[in-house]
Amino acid sequence: MNAAVNELRPDLALIAGWITPGARVLDLGCGDGALLAHLAEQRGARGYGLEIDPANVAACVARGVNVIQADLDDGLRDFETGSFDYVLLTQTLQALQRPDEAIEEILRVGRTAIVTFPNFGHWRVRLALMNGRMPVTKTLSSAWYDTPNIHLCTVADFEALCAVRGWQVHERRLLNRAHREGWTIRLAPSLFAEVALYQLHGRVGG
Amino acid sequence: MSADASESSVGTVIPQLIDIDAPLILDCGRLLPRHQLMVETYGSLNAEASNAILICHALSGDHHAAGYHDDERKPGWWDNCIGPGKPIDTSRFFVVSLNNLGGCRGSTGPNTVDPETGRVWGPDFPLLTVRDWVRSQGLLADRLGIAQWAAIIGGSLGGMQVMQWAVDLPRRIRHAVVIAAAPQISAQNIAFNEIARQAILSDPDFHGGRYFEQGVVPGRGLRLARMLGHITYLSDAAMRAKFGNDLKAPQPSFNFDVEFEVESYLRYQGEAFVDRFDANTYLLMTKALDYFDPARDYDDSLVTAFQQAQARFLVIAFSSDWRFSPARSREIVKSLVDAGRDVSYALIDSELGHDDFLMPLPDYHRMLRNYLSRVADEVGA
Questions:
Q1: Is the pLDDT of residue B2 over 70?
Q2: Interchain CB distance below 8 Å, B347 and A69
Q3: Residue A48 has pLDDT above 90, yes or no
Q4: Residue B281 sits in the same domain as residue B297
Q5: What CATH number is attached to the domain comprising B140?
Q6: What are residue B336's phi and psi, to 5 degrees?
Q7: Backbone angles phi, psi at A89, to 5 degrees
Q8: Structural domain harbouring B204
Q9: Predicted local distance difference test score (pLDDT) of residue A6
């Protein structure tokens, strides 16, 4: 049991801290189910993961995590409005066909959206581009021609979209390369954050 | 995780005929005071009786799911999946496989003798529903001393029995594994079944179902029914890959003999079926399939039906299956999610069509293996 806690990535551990006990959770792109297994054990959370990769689906099943094999680009039409307390989208936003529509759907299905993504405004990304090359970093580890990441954005881009769509930013955390909140991030968040984490609520009255 | 090398066969198996002496009230209103079920078991029941798995068969299946009969070289119909070290691991589980009531492979059915009249049931055998089968299987569980199945597993019509179990006898099933099934039958499915039935009913040798007394079987009708069924079990792509449109001879012969490979395949399948299956049972099985609708008892709400269930579910569909397509499995999954039940869903990439649920596809078997090994841990198997 403790092994699972130790294994959990720091950004996922931070998300786990946001989830209220007994919550109903939908984890989009749930990978091998580590986070959901942790939430079930530590928070008594119940829910499902959505995952497209067969090996990951099999890994979730081996952990006893509820997983539904599905393509996130097909949307969430199989899920009723307001049926989850939290819908999670961790490090997957940038790989979707329409990230904006995905978030609208997430806010329909869940009361709170938890969205994390790699910040394309990080100084290493900017440095690589200044040198005339597409960046390859720890969080963006693929080359331009075979990357699944087709809709990259910066922290500023994301917040601009939230403002335009009327999504309420309930909470924001920016983490550095070690997935910690260091002094550099406090100094210049959009330059030093490698991973951005948001809790969003839908439009007021929407 | 066991490698293929550690898999083995359950070996020679001997079916046993089990007397179910409790009365069974059927959905059609008739009562069977007692009946018999032909059963095979593999592995051994543990002291707590917590490691039992029930296998539910599909339209033309029977109790012989694994291992070998003395006089046959071909193993049971799901031998690639059931055995020591296989996904349904008989070194951990006690696996029970039966020929359903109404079947033609030894269980009480149209081709057995009605003790009341002393003659073969034939067309007088009552039509059955999936709910009737679940009741009959429940009585079998009582008889075997199994209060709760660790899991019930079935593909196609077998998967429908699994769902009905979870709804009707929720405390007696821990895990429900529903493979290549549908939440109810579509008009298209009923249409195919109706053509199959008409083929049998219109065969001059059918004699209103009393063909045994006439010393014949409605072979032409049964053959046609099976040929039609086989078309729906295979994908277009699989048929193309398997048979193409090649002529067997260099030139067309301009008659109705077998000219194309697919014709020869269908005729062979039809012929083989006549030798092992009973027409009255085929009629009864297709009707049970048509009647299946667990939502009917709950104001046509599958969600409400599944709210009765307590089992955890694993639902598996195959991408090339058009008979019970992945979309139908997604309907099951959606209703389970809306009912707040635990469910996992796997869509297996496949080519053959509906028949893939019987094939040892690596992704499919890994899914079953991973799921069932957790079940085994959970029940102390």
A1: no
A2: yes
A3: yes
A4: no
A5: 3.40.50.1820
A6: -65, -40
A7: -135, 95
A8: 189-286
A9: 54
Residue B264 among the catalytic residues: no
Residue A44 has pLDDT above 70, yes or no: yes
Q: Report the mean per-residue pLDDT for chain A.
A: 92
Helices in chain B by DSSP H: which ranges?
Answer: 130-144, 157-168, 187-201, 219-233, 236-243, 261-276, 279-291, 302-307, 326-338, 362-379
Q: Report which residue type is found at B169.
A: L
Q: Which pTM was predicted?
A: 0.94
Residue A67: its chain B contacts at CB < 8 A? 344-345
CA distance A197 to A175: 8
The more confidently predicted of residues A186 and B145 is: B145
B354 is catalytic: yes
Tell me: pLDDT of A204 over 60.
yes
Task: Please say if the pLDDT value at position A50 is more than 70.
Answer: yes
- Are the beta carbons of B309 and B170 closer than 8 angstroms? yes
ipTM above 0.90, yes or no: yes
As a whole number, the mean pLDDT across chain B is 95
How many domains would you assign to chain B? 2
Per DSSP, the three-state class of B88 is strand
Judging contacts by C-beta atoms under 8 Å, the chain B residues touching residue A65 are 344
B196 and B107 share a domain?
no
CA distance A2 to chain B (A): 19
DSSP state string for B113-154: B-TTTSSB-GGGSPP--HHHHHHHHHHHHHHHT-SSEEEEEE
